[in-house]
Design brief:
By secondary structure, the protein is an alpha/beta fold. The chain has 2 domains: 149 residues, Aspartate Aminotransferase, domain 1; 274 residues, Type I PLP-dependent aspartate aminotransferase-like (Major domain) (Aspartate Aminotransferase, domain 2), CATH 3.40.640. The protein has 17 helices and 15 strands. Strand 1 and strand 2 form a beta hairpin. The longest helix has 19 residues. The structure holds pyridoxal-5'-phosphate (PLP). The site of pyridoxal-5'-phosphate has 16 residues, from helix 7. Belongs to the class-III pyridoxal-phosphate-dependent aminotransferase family. Keywords: Aminotransferase, Pyridoxal phosphate, Transferase. InterPro entries: Aminotrans_3 (IPR005814), Aminotrans_3_PPA_site (IPR049704), PyrdxlP-dep_Trfase (IPR015424), PyrdxlP-dep_Trfase_major (IPR015421), PyrdxlP-dep_Trfase_small (IPR015422).
Protein backbone atom coordinates (compact mmCIF):
# COMPACT_ATOMS: atom_id res chain seq x y z
CA UNK A 1 0.00 0.00 0.00
CA UNK A 2 1.51 3.35 -1.03
CA UNK A 3 0.46 6.68 0.42
CA UNK A 4 -0.30 9.60 -1.96
CA UNK A 5 2.70 11.41 -0.53
CA UNK A 6 4.95 8.53 -1.47
CA UNK A 7 3.53 8.56 -4.96
CA UNK A 8 4.69 12.12 -5.38
CA UNK A 9 8.22 11.49 -4.15
CA UNK A 10 10.45 12.13 -7.10
CA UNK A 11 13.05 9.60 -5.99
CA UNK A 12 10.74 6.66 -6.50
CA UNK A 13 11.82 4.82 -9.60
CA UNK A 14 9.46 4.63 -12.53
CA UNK A 15 9.43 0.86 -12.16
CA UNK A 16 8.19 1.14 -8.58
CA UNK A 17 5.48 3.60 -9.57
CA UNK A 18 4.50 1.31 -12.43
CA UNK A 19 4.34 -1.68 -10.08
CA UNK A 20 2.22 0.17 -7.53
CA UNK A 21 -0.21 2.04 -9.76
CA UNK A 22 -0.37 0.93 -13.37
CA UNK A 23 -2.56 -2.03 -14.24
CA UNK A 24 -1.12 -3.71 -17.32
CA UNK A 25 -3.37 -5.39 -19.88
CA UNK A 26 -3.40 -9.20 -20.04
CA UNK A 27 -0.86 -9.52 -17.20
CA UNK A 28 -0.86 -11.41 -13.91
CA UNK A 29 -1.27 -8.82 -11.13
CA UNK A 30 0.90 -10.79 -8.66
CA UNK A 31 3.38 -11.80 -11.35
CA UNK A 32 3.82 -8.20 -12.38
CA UNK A 33 4.51 -7.11 -8.81
CA UNK A 34 7.46 -9.53 -8.86
CA UNK A 35 8.75 -9.15 -12.41
CA UNK A 36 7.99 -5.50 -13.14
CA UNK A 37 7.83 -3.90 -16.56
CA UNK A 38 10.29 -3.38 -19.39
CA UNK A 39 9.90 0.30 -20.12
CA UNK A 40 10.47 1.16 -23.76
CA UNK A 41 12.01 4.49 -24.65
CA UNK A 42 12.22 4.95 -28.43
CA UNK A 43 11.95 3.18 -31.76
CA UNK A 44 13.21 3.45 -35.32
CA UNK A 45 12.28 1.11 -38.18
CA UNK A 46 12.44 -2.44 -36.80
CA UNK A 47 14.30 -1.44 -33.66
CA UNK A 48 13.27 -0.53 -30.12
CA UNK A 49 15.41 0.89 -27.34
CA UNK A 50 14.53 0.28 -23.70
CA UNK A 51 15.32 2.60 -20.79
CA UNK A 52 18.55 0.73 -20.08
CA UNK A 53 19.66 1.59 -23.62
CA UNK A 54 19.32 -2.00 -24.85
CA UNK A 55 18.67 -2.31 -28.61
CA UNK A 56 15.88 -4.76 -29.36
CA UNK A 57 14.91 -6.15 -32.75
CA UNK A 58 11.11 -6.13 -32.73
CA UNK A 59 9.88 -9.28 -34.46
CA UNK A 60 6.31 -8.60 -33.34
CA UNK A 61 5.63 -5.06 -34.65
CA UNK A 62 4.65 -3.92 -31.15
CA UNK A 63 1.52 -6.03 -30.81
CA UNK A 64 1.17 -7.04 -34.49
CA UNK A 65 0.35 -3.46 -35.35
CA UNK A 66 3.37 -1.25 -36.17
CA UNK A 67 3.39 -2.62 -39.71
CA UNK A 68 5.23 0.38 -41.21
CA UNK A 69 7.93 0.38 -38.52
CA UNK A 70 8.73 2.98 -35.88
CA UNK A 71 9.71 6.60 -36.50
CA UNK A 72 7.87 7.35 -39.74
CA UNK A 73 8.06 11.15 -39.80
CA UNK A 74 5.34 11.60 -42.41
CA UNK A 75 2.83 10.05 -40.00
CA UNK A 76 3.90 12.43 -37.25
CA UNK A 77 3.44 15.35 -39.67
CA UNK A 78 -0.01 14.14 -40.75
CA UNK A 79 -1.14 13.96 -37.11
CA UNK A 80 0.39 17.32 -36.21
CA UNK A 81 -1.15 19.06 -39.27
CA UNK A 82 -4.57 17.71 -38.43
CA UNK A 83 -4.26 18.60 -34.74
CA UNK A 84 -3.36 22.17 -35.66
CA UNK A 85 -6.23 22.50 -38.12
CA UNK A 86 -8.95 20.63 -36.27
CA UNK A 87 -8.11 18.29 -33.39
CA UNK A 88 -11.60 16.96 -32.96
CA UNK A 89 -14.85 16.67 -34.88
CA UNK A 90 -17.77 14.59 -33.75
CA UNK A 91 -19.48 12.28 -36.18
CA UNK A 92 -22.78 12.74 -34.32
CA UNK A 93 -25.64 14.95 -35.47
CA UNK A 94 -24.51 14.85 -39.12
CA UNK A 95 -21.14 16.46 -38.39
CA UNK A 96 -17.98 14.95 -39.79
CA UNK A 97 -14.51 15.73 -41.06
CA UNK A 98 -12.64 15.33 -44.32
CA UNK A 99 -10.07 12.77 -43.06
CA UNK A 100 -12.81 10.41 -41.83
CA UNK A 101 -14.68 10.66 -45.13
CA UNK A 102 -11.52 10.13 -47.20
CA UNK A 103 -10.40 7.19 -45.07
CA UNK A 104 -13.81 5.52 -45.42
CA UNK A 105 -13.60 6.03 -49.18
CA UNK A 106 -10.08 4.55 -49.31
CA UNK A 107 -11.08 1.49 -47.26
CA UNK A 108 -14.06 0.83 -49.53
CA UNK A 109 -11.74 1.12 -52.57
CA UNK A 110 -9.11 -1.23 -51.14
CA UNK A 111 -11.29 -3.87 -49.46
CA UNK A 112 -13.01 -6.84 -51.14
CA UNK A 113 -15.80 -5.86 -53.52
CA UNK A 114 -19.14 -5.36 -51.79
CA UNK A 115 -18.04 -3.91 -48.45
CA UNK A 116 -19.37 -0.43 -49.08
CA UNK A 117 -19.99 1.04 -45.62
CA UNK A 118 -17.54 1.90 -42.86
CA UNK A 119 -18.06 2.56 -39.16
CA UNK A 120 -14.97 3.75 -37.27
CA UNK A 121 -14.09 2.52 -33.80
CA UNK A 122 -11.26 3.07 -31.32
CA UNK A 123 -9.67 -0.34 -31.77
CA UNK A 124 -10.38 -3.98 -32.47
CA UNK A 125 -12.47 -4.91 -29.44
CA UNK A 126 -15.08 -2.26 -30.10
CA UNK A 127 -15.01 -3.12 -33.81
CA UNK A 128 -16.12 -6.63 -32.82
CA UNK A 129 -18.69 -5.17 -30.40
CA UNK A 130 -19.99 -2.86 -33.09
CA UNK A 131 -20.30 -5.74 -35.55
CA UNK A 132 -22.40 -7.65 -33.00
CA UNK A 133 -24.59 -4.65 -32.28
CA UNK A 134 -25.21 -4.02 -35.98
CA UNK A 135 -25.91 -7.70 -36.63
CA UNK A 136 -28.45 -7.76 -33.78
CA UNK A 137 -30.10 -4.64 -35.20
CA UNK A 138 -30.05 -6.11 -38.71
CA UNK A 139 -31.89 -9.29 -37.81
CA UNK A 140 -34.48 -7.40 -35.78
CA UNK A 141 -34.91 -4.97 -38.68
CA UNK A 142 -35.44 -7.65 -41.32
CA UNK A 143 -37.96 -9.50 -39.17
CA UNK A 144 -35.79 -12.43 -38.04
CA UNK A 145 -35.45 -11.55 -34.35
CA UNK A 146 -34.69 -15.12 -33.30
CA UNK A 147 -31.36 -15.06 -35.12
CA UNK A 148 -29.06 -14.11 -32.23
CA UNK A 149 -26.70 -17.05 -31.61
CA UNK A 150 -23.09 -16.51 -32.69
CA UNK A 151 -20.45 -19.13 -33.44
CA UNK A 152 -16.69 -18.65 -33.34
CA UNK A 153 -13.61 -20.86 -33.28
CA UNK A 154 -11.82 -22.45 -30.36
CA UNK A 155 -8.47 -20.67 -29.86
CA UNK A 156 -9.98 -17.60 -31.56
CA UNK A 157 -9.38 -14.10 -30.22
CA UNK A 158 -11.90 -11.32 -30.75
CA UNK A 159 -10.97 -8.72 -28.16
CA UNK A 160 -11.35 -7.87 -24.55
CA UNK A 161 -14.82 -6.36 -24.19
CA UNK A 162 -17.43 -8.59 -22.57
CA UNK A 163 -18.93 -9.61 -25.90
CA UNK A 164 -15.59 -9.91 -27.71
CA UNK A 165 -13.93 -11.82 -24.86
CA UNK A 166 -16.90 -14.19 -24.84
CA UNK A 167 -16.47 -14.89 -28.56
CA UNK A 168 -12.79 -15.39 -27.84
CA UNK A 169 -12.02 -18.95 -26.83
CA UNK A 170 -8.90 -18.62 -24.71
CA UNK A 171 -9.17 -19.73 -21.08
CA UNK A 172 -7.72 -16.58 -19.48
CA UNK A 173 -10.37 -14.44 -21.11
CA UNK A 174 -13.24 -16.55 -19.75
CA UNK A 175 -11.92 -17.65 -16.36
CA UNK A 176 -13.26 -15.43 -13.60
CA UNK A 177 -15.27 -13.31 -16.05
CA UNK A 178 -18.37 -15.52 -16.34
CA UNK A 179 -17.90 -16.00 -20.04
CA UNK A 180 -18.87 -17.03 -22.66
CA UNK A 181 -22.35 -15.49 -22.78
CA UNK A 182 -25.23 -17.87 -23.42
CA UNK A 183 -25.54 -16.93 -27.10
CA UNK A 184 -21.84 -17.52 -27.82
CA UNK A 185 -20.67 -20.90 -29.09
CA UNK A 186 -17.44 -22.39 -30.36
CA UNK A 187 -16.40 -25.06 -32.82
CA UNK A 188 -12.91 -26.61 -33.10
CA UNK A 189 -10.09 -24.71 -34.72
CA UNK A 190 -8.72 -25.98 -38.06
CA UNK A 191 -5.29 -26.59 -36.52
CA UNK A 192 -3.35 -28.78 -38.97
CA UNK A 193 -0.35 -29.58 -36.72
CA UNK A 194 -2.58 -30.77 -33.87
CA UNK A 195 -5.01 -32.65 -36.12
CA UNK A 196 -4.88 -36.34 -36.91
CA UNK A 197 -5.83 -35.20 -40.43
CA UNK A 198 -2.54 -33.26 -40.82
CA UNK A 199 -1.39 -33.38 -44.44
CA UNK A 200 -4.91 -33.84 -45.83
CA UNK A 201 -6.06 -30.25 -46.35
CA UNK A 202 -9.30 -31.20 -48.07
CA UNK A 203 -10.30 -33.39 -45.12
CA UNK A 204 -9.48 -30.65 -42.59
CA UNK A 205 -11.62 -28.18 -44.53
CA UNK A 206 -14.49 -30.64 -44.96
CA UNK A 207 -14.49 -31.45 -41.26
CA UNK A 208 -14.53 -27.78 -40.29
CA UNK A 209 -17.49 -27.14 -42.60
CA UNK A 210 -19.27 -30.13 -41.09
CA UNK A 211 -18.59 -28.88 -37.56
CA UNK A 212 -20.18 -25.54 -38.48
CA UNK A 213 -23.18 -27.30 -40.04
CA UNK A 214 -23.58 -29.51 -36.98
CA UNK A 215 -23.43 -26.55 -34.58
CA UNK A 216 -26.00 -24.63 -36.64
CA UNK A 217 -28.25 -27.69 -36.71
CA UNK A 218 -27.90 -28.08 -32.92
CA UNK A 219 -28.81 -24.42 -32.31
CA UNK A 220 -31.46 -24.33 -35.04
CA UNK A 221 -30.69 -22.43 -38.27
CA UNK A 222 -33.41 -19.90 -37.52
CA UNK A 223 -31.59 -18.93 -34.34
CA UNK A 224 -28.07 -18.44 -35.67
CA UNK A 225 -26.90 -14.97 -36.62
CA UNK A 226 -23.26 -15.21 -37.56
CA UNK A 227 -19.97 -17.03 -37.70
CA UNK A 228 -16.93 -15.04 -36.58
CA UNK A 229 -13.41 -16.04 -37.60
CA UNK A 230 -9.92 -14.77 -38.04
CA UNK A 231 -8.57 -15.79 -41.48
CA UNK A 232 -5.45 -16.89 -39.56
CA UNK A 233 -5.87 -17.23 -35.80
CA UNK A 234 -3.41 -14.88 -34.11
CA UNK A 235 -3.47 -14.90 -30.31
CA UNK A 236 -4.53 -18.55 -30.29
CA UNK A 237 -1.02 -19.40 -31.52
CA UNK A 238 -0.88 -18.28 -35.18
CA UNK A 239 -2.92 -21.16 -36.51
CA UNK A 240 -2.89 -21.21 -40.28
CA UNK A 241 -5.83 -23.11 -41.80
CA UNK A 242 -5.34 -24.79 -45.16
CA UNK A 243 -5.74 -22.61 -48.27
CA UNK A 244 -9.39 -22.82 -49.29
CA UNK A 245 -10.73 -23.06 -45.72
CA UNK A 246 -11.98 -19.46 -45.67
CA UNK A 247 -13.77 -19.81 -49.00
CA UNK A 248 -15.38 -23.06 -47.89
CA UNK A 249 -16.60 -21.46 -44.64
CA UNK A 250 -18.00 -18.55 -46.68
CA UNK A 251 -19.94 -20.95 -48.90
CA UNK A 252 -21.25 -22.81 -45.85
CA UNK A 253 -22.41 -19.57 -44.19
CA UNK A 254 -24.27 -18.53 -47.34
CA UNK A 255 -25.93 -21.93 -47.58
CA UNK A 256 -26.86 -21.87 -43.87
CA UNK A 257 -28.16 -18.28 -44.12
CA UNK A 258 -25.80 -16.88 -41.49
CA UNK A 259 -23.50 -13.88 -41.76
CA UNK A 260 -19.75 -14.31 -41.93
CA UNK A 261 -17.67 -11.80 -39.99
CA UNK A 262 -13.98 -11.83 -40.92
CA UNK A 263 -11.99 -10.48 -38.02
CA UNK A 264 -8.99 -9.08 -39.89
CA UNK A 265 -7.69 -7.02 -36.97
CA UNK A 266 -4.30 -8.75 -37.32
CA UNK A 267 -4.38 -10.16 -40.84
CA UNK A 268 -5.24 -7.00 -42.80
CA UNK A 269 -2.92 -4.41 -44.30
CA UNK A 270 -0.38 -6.73 -45.86
CA UNK A 271 0.28 -8.83 -42.77
CA UNK A 272 -0.37 -12.07 -44.70
CA UNK A 273 0.74 -10.76 -48.13
CA UNK A 274 -2.24 -9.10 -49.85
CA UNK A 275 -3.90 -6.01 -48.40
CA UNK A 276 -6.56 -8.22 -46.78
CA UNK A 277 -6.30 -11.95 -46.04
CA UNK A 278 -9.79 -12.50 -47.52
CA UNK A 279 -8.47 -11.26 -50.85
CA UNK A 280 -6.17 -14.27 -51.21
CA UNK A 281 -9.23 -16.52 -51.47
CA UNK A 282 -11.37 -14.10 -53.47
CA UNK A 283 -13.74 -14.04 -50.54
CA UNK A 284 -16.04 -11.26 -49.37
CA UNK A 285 -17.35 -11.45 -45.81
CA UNK A 286 -20.62 -9.79 -44.77
CA UNK A 287 -18.72 -7.72 -42.23
CA UNK A 288 -15.03 -7.19 -41.64
CA UNK A 289 -13.38 -5.88 -38.48
CA UNK A 290 -10.13 -3.92 -38.69
CA UNK A 291 -7.74 -2.10 -36.33
CA UNK A 292 -3.96 -2.39 -35.64
CA UNK A 293 -2.37 -1.93 -39.11
CA UNK A 294 -5.04 0.64 -40.03
CA UNK A 295 -3.07 3.28 -38.15
CA UNK A 296 0.01 1.05 -37.66
CA UNK A 297 -0.29 1.56 -33.91
CA UNK A 298 0.63 5.27 -34.10
CA UNK A 299 -2.80 6.28 -32.74
CA UNK A 300 -5.82 4.15 -31.80
CA UNK A 301 -8.42 3.36 -34.44
CA UNK A 302 -10.47 0.45 -35.74
CA UNK A 303 -13.28 -0.04 -38.20
CA UNK A 304 -16.17 -2.26 -39.19
CA UNK A 305 -16.77 -2.67 -42.90
CA UNK A 306 -20.31 -3.67 -43.75
CA UNK A 307 -21.93 -5.10 -46.88
CA UNK A 308 -24.69 -3.21 -48.59
CA UNK A 309 -27.12 -6.03 -47.71
CA UNK A 310 -26.60 -5.52 -43.97
CA UNK A 311 -26.55 -1.74 -44.27
CA UNK A 312 -29.78 -1.62 -46.30
CA UNK A 313 -31.46 -4.08 -43.96
CA UNK A 314 -30.76 -1.81 -41.00
CA UNK A 315 -31.65 1.34 -42.94
CA UNK A 316 -34.95 -0.04 -44.24
CA UNK A 317 -35.91 -1.53 -40.92
CA UNK A 318 -35.83 1.71 -38.96
CA UNK A 319 -38.21 4.58 -39.50
CA UNK A 320 -36.37 7.48 -41.16
CA UNK A 321 -36.40 9.61 -38.04
CA UNK A 322 -35.24 6.90 -35.62
CA UNK A 323 -31.57 7.13 -34.72
CA UNK A 324 -29.52 3.93 -34.68
CA UNK A 325 -28.20 4.21 -31.13
CA UNK A 326 -24.65 3.09 -31.58
CA UNK A 327 -21.67 5.41 -31.43
CA UNK A 328 -18.70 6.78 -29.52
CA UNK A 329 -17.29 10.23 -28.91
CA UNK A 330 -14.14 9.38 -30.85
CA UNK A 331 -15.66 7.47 -33.76
CA UNK A 332 -14.00 8.75 -36.95
CA UNK A 333 -11.58 10.88 -34.94
CA UNK A 334 -9.98 13.26 -37.46
CA UNK A 335 -6.42 12.86 -36.13
CA UNK A 336 -6.65 9.05 -36.22
CA UNK A 337 -8.20 9.25 -39.68
CA UNK A 338 -5.43 11.55 -40.95
CA UNK A 339 -2.88 9.07 -39.59
CA UNK A 340 -4.79 6.20 -41.24
CA UNK A 341 -4.71 7.96 -44.60
CA UNK A 342 -0.95 8.47 -44.37
CA UNK A 343 -0.39 4.88 -43.24
CA UNK A 344 -2.42 3.61 -46.23
CA UNK A 345 -0.34 5.86 -48.50
CA UNK A 346 2.85 4.35 -47.06
CA UNK A 347 1.57 0.81 -47.71
CA UNK A 348 0.67 1.56 -51.32
CA UNK A 349 2.56 4.50 -52.86
CA UNK A 350 5.29 4.29 -50.20
CA UNK A 351 6.03 0.70 -51.27
CA UNK A 352 5.79 -0.86 -47.79
CA UNK A 353 3.20 -3.45 -48.82
CA UNK A 354 5.40 -4.49 -51.75
CA UNK A 355 8.45 -4.67 -49.47
CA UNK A 356 6.47 -6.85 -47.05
CA UNK A 357 5.56 -9.21 -49.87
CA UNK A 358 9.20 -9.38 -51.03
CA UNK A 359 10.69 -9.93 -47.58
CA UNK A 360 7.93 -12.47 -46.85
CA UNK A 361 9.95 -14.96 -48.91
CA UNK A 362 12.91 -14.42 -46.59
CA UNK A 363 10.62 -14.83 -43.58
CA UNK A 364 9.33 -18.14 -44.96
CA UNK A 365 12.93 -19.28 -45.50
CA UNK A 366 13.76 -18.31 -41.90
CA UNK A 367 10.84 -20.36 -40.60
CA UNK A 368 11.83 -23.35 -42.72
CA UNK A 369 15.45 -22.98 -41.64
CA UNK A 370 14.73 -23.22 -37.94
CA UNK A 371 12.53 -26.33 -38.25
CA UNK A 372 15.56 -28.60 -37.72
CA UNK A 373 16.16 -27.34 -34.18
CA UNK A 374 15.64 -30.15 -31.61
CA UNK A 375 12.97 -28.11 -29.77
CA UNK A 376 10.94 -27.15 -32.85
CA UNK A 377 7.89 -29.29 -33.67
CA UNK A 378 6.20 -27.10 -36.25
CA UNK A 379 6.77 -23.89 -38.17
CA UNK A 380 3.94 -22.21 -40.03
CA UNK A 381 3.05 -18.87 -41.48
CA UNK A 382 1.74 -16.78 -44.32
CA UNK A 383 3.18 -13.47 -45.45
CA UNK A 384 4.79 -11.92 -42.37
CA UNK A 385 2.69 -13.75 -39.82
CA UNK A 386 4.28 -16.88 -38.43
CA UNK A 387 4.81 -19.26 -35.55
CA UNK A 388 7.38 -21.69 -34.24
CA UNK A 389 5.78 -24.34 -32.04
CA UNK A 390 8.15 -25.89 -29.51
CA UNK A 391 7.74 -29.48 -28.36
CA UNK A 392 9.57 -31.78 -25.98
CA UNK A 393 9.34 -34.66 -28.44
CA UNK A 394 9.10 -34.03 -32.17
CA UNK A 395 7.86 -37.50 -33.10
CA UNK A 396 5.04 -37.50 -30.58
CA UNK A 397 4.43 -33.70 -30.66
CA UNK A 398 4.60 -33.78 -26.84
CA UNK A 399 4.14 -30.42 -25.18
CA UNK A 400 6.63 -29.29 -22.54
CA UNK A 401 5.61 -29.71 -18.91
CA UNK A 402 3.93 -26.39 -17.87
CA UNK A 403 5.99 -26.58 -14.64
CA UNK A 404 9.05 -25.63 -16.71
CA UNK A 405 7.44 -22.23 -17.40
CA UNK A 406 9.12 -22.34 -20.77
CA UNK A 407 7.12 -19.50 -22.34
CA UNK A 408 8.32 -17.03 -19.69
CA UNK A 409 11.90 -18.24 -19.99
CA UNK A 410 11.69 -18.08 -23.78
CA UNK A 411 10.60 -14.47 -23.75
CA UNK A 412 13.21 -13.52 -21.18
CA UNK A 413 16.05 -15.25 -23.07
CA UNK A 414 14.92 -13.68 -26.34
CA UNK A 415 14.94 -10.28 -24.69
CA UNK A 416 18.47 -10.86 -23.42
CA UNK A 417 19.47 -11.87 -26.96
CA UNK A 418 17.95 -8.64 -28.29
CA UNK A 419 14.84 -9.98 -30.03
CA UNK A 420 11.21 -9.42 -29.08
CA UNK A 421 8.57 -11.97 -30.03
CA UNK A 422 5.39 -13.27 -28.47
CA UNK A 423 5.75 -16.38 -26.34
CA UNK A 424 2.32 -18.01 -26.11
CA UNK A 425 1.29 -20.29 -23.26
CA UNK A 426 1.64 -23.48 -25.35
CA UNK A 427 5.27 -22.56 -26.05
CA UNK A 428 4.45 -21.17 -29.44
CA UNK A 429 6.68 -18.31 -30.63
CA UNK A 430 4.51 -15.77 -32.46
CA UNK A 431 6.19 -13.63 -35.11
CA UNK A 432 4.83 -10.59 -36.95
CA UNK A 433 7.69 -8.32 -38.02
CA UNK A 434 6.97 -4.95 -39.61
CA UNK A 435 6.57 -4.90 -43.39
CA UNK A 436 9.50 -2.49 -43.71
CA UNK A 437 12.10 -5.10 -42.63
CA UNK A 438 15.24 -5.63 -44.70
CA UNK A 439 16.54 -9.07 -45.64
CA UNK A 440 19.39 -8.59 -43.17
CA UNK A 441 17.01 -7.78 -40.32
CA UNK A 442 14.88 -10.79 -41.17
CA UNK A 443 17.93 -13.09 -41.06
CA UNK A 444 18.96 -11.48 -37.76
CA UNK A 445 15.54 -12.27 -36.22
CA UNK A 446 15.97 -15.97 -36.94
CA UNK A 447 19.63 -16.01 -35.88
CA UNK A 448 18.67 -14.49 -32.53
CA UNK A 449 15.77 -16.91 -32.08
CA UNK A 450 18.11 -19.83 -32.80
CA UNK A 451 20.57 -18.50 -30.21
CA UNK A 452 17.70 -18.20 -27.75
CA UNK A 453 16.65 -21.82 -28.30
CA UNK A 454 20.27 -22.98 -28.04
CA UNK A 455 20.66 -21.10 -24.75
CA UNK A 456 17.53 -22.73 -23.37
CA UNK A 457 18.69 -26.15 -24.46
CA UNK A 458 21.79 -25.68 -22.34
CA UNK A 459 19.66 -25.39 -19.21
CA UNK A 460 19.62 -28.77 -17.47
CA UNK A 461 15.86 -29.16 -16.89
CA UNK A 462 15.01 -28.24 -20.47
CA UNK A 463 17.75 -30.45 -21.91
CA UNK A 464 16.41 -33.33 -19.81
CA UNK A 465 12.87 -32.74 -21.11
CA UNK A 466 13.84 -32.80 -24.81
CA UNK A 467 14.06 -36.11 -26.60
N1 LIG B 1 -9.65 -9.17 -32.96
C1 LIG B 1 -8.45 -9.74 -33.18
C2 LIG B 1 -8.34 -10.80 -34.22
C3 LIG B 1 -7.33 -9.33 -32.45
O1 LIG B 1 -6.16 -9.94 -32.65
C4 LIG B 1 -7.49 -8.30 -31.50
C5 LIG B 1 -6.33 -7.85 -30.72
O2 LIG B 1 -5.27 -8.44 -30.72
C6 LIG B 1 -8.74 -7.75 -31.31
C7 LIG B 1 -9.81 -8.19 -32.05
C8 LIG B 1 -8.95 -6.67 -30.28
O3 LIG B 1 -8.32 -5.51 -30.70
P1 LIG B 1 -7.92 -4.38 -29.64
O4 LIG B 1 -6.84 -4.97 -28.79
O5 LIG B 1 -7.46 -3.25 -30.52
O6 LIG B 1 -9.13 -4.02 -28.88
Amino acid sequence: MTSPAMTLQSNRSLLEIDRDHLIHPVTSFRGHETHGAILLESGKGMWLKDREGRDLLDAFAGLWCVNVGYGQDSIVEAAADQMRRLPYATGYFHFGSEPAVRLAQRLVELSPEGLDHVYFTLGGSDAVDSAIRYITHYYNAIGKPAKKQCIALERGYHGSSTTGAGLTALANFHRGFDLPLRWQHHIPSPYPYRSELEGDDAAIIARSVQQLRDKVAELGADNVAAFFCEPIQGSGGVIVPPVGWLKAMRAACTELDILLVADEVITAFGRTGPMFACEAEGMTPDLMTLAKGLTAGYVPMGAVLMSDKVYQGIADGAAADIVIGHGATYSGHPVSAAVGLEVLRLYTKGGILANGQRVGTRFAAGLAGIADHPMVGDTRGRGLLGAIELVANKGHKTRFDPALKLADRLFERGYRNGVIFRAFADNIIGLAPALCASDGEMDMIFARIRNTLDDLLEEADIRAAVG
